[in-house]
Amino acid sequence: MENAPAPACRLYLITPPSLPDLDEFADAFSAALRAGDIACVQLRLKAPDGGPPHADDVRAAAARLAPLAQDAGAAFLINDDPQLAKETSADGVHIGQSDARLVDARAMLGPDASIGVTCHNSLDLAFEAGEAGADYVAFGAFFETATKEAPTRADPDILTRWREMTVLPSVAIGGVTPENGAALVRAGADFLAVSAAVWRNPLGPAKAIKAFETMIADAVG
Fold it and tell me: Taking the complete model, does pTM exceed 0.85, yes or no?
């Protein structure tokens, strides 16, 4: 029997910046994982002032959430901090341009870790990340977002140009919703990073994931 072709675009789920009730969130998180095809989860916590989270909060959240993600077949990544990724046995780390150097993260986490790099709206940064050994690059923000302050705005054309020039996967991030994501899928995004549109959906995260899957299927169909 032939293997089914890989989906043209998959979901990359990012946690809310604050998880005041970890057990309650774990229930919603499990519902989201069961609802559809989620390739990756990024634990992205922030302190109340928007700065780096307390390391113990990251450790506690990872201990609770990583097994749920991994049991569902999703990679579990830590935002910004390779050391915490190593301590929590995460599958990898996502780093920004002002965070740890990719070469240092790779040396710490090893060749099998998944390491992604924020590249804003720059193909040059993306090529640099690819040459340094990144497993994916993230472009954005594509739309207005209240989840994280976005220093740059990207055009969907960057996804098309990137796919034409390389096989390294791209993640489209920043304000992505079921209503606006189709343009990014058609432009060539390998993954859609989603957060607020899932966790703030009034119908719940499972319904949100299903809405994203319907949108992706329609966009590639």
Answer: yes
